[in-house]
């Protein structure tokens, strides 16, 4: 086979629309497979993130009148903040909150003492949840029932 014959066959291969169509289909198939593998990997990563243990902390609370003291006894490395949830919205007056004026505190360390105030603005028996938040998860670490405020 002469060099001219080989060159002619190569040129005729690319002039054949069916051959070009087959090559295009193979390239698209490879792109789809690579994209599918990436999507599966991303979804598995998101799934395993949700399997991480919830943030943990231990607090001790005591109420005296309209204020409650919360002492942090233990806090996990994954805890970003502590939050107050539950029946914390007041019918009149200020909502139940930490003394800093918010319903969450961050940069929590063992030994920190926080004051929860405005307990007189919710009914006796209302339940307040203390929640540890971190790693896109939350967990209720303590449920506290509001006692007499007078």
Automatic annotation (TrEMBL):
<keyword id="KW-1133">Transmembrane helix</keyword>
<keyword id="KW-0472">Membrane</keyword>
<protein>
    <recommendedName>
        <fullName>Archaeal Type IV pilin N-terminal domain-containing protein</fullName>
    </recommendedName>
</protein>
<keyword id="KW-0812">Transmembrane</keyword>
<feature type="transmembrane region" description="Helical">
    <location>
        <begin position="20"/>
        <end position="44"/>
    </location>
</feature>
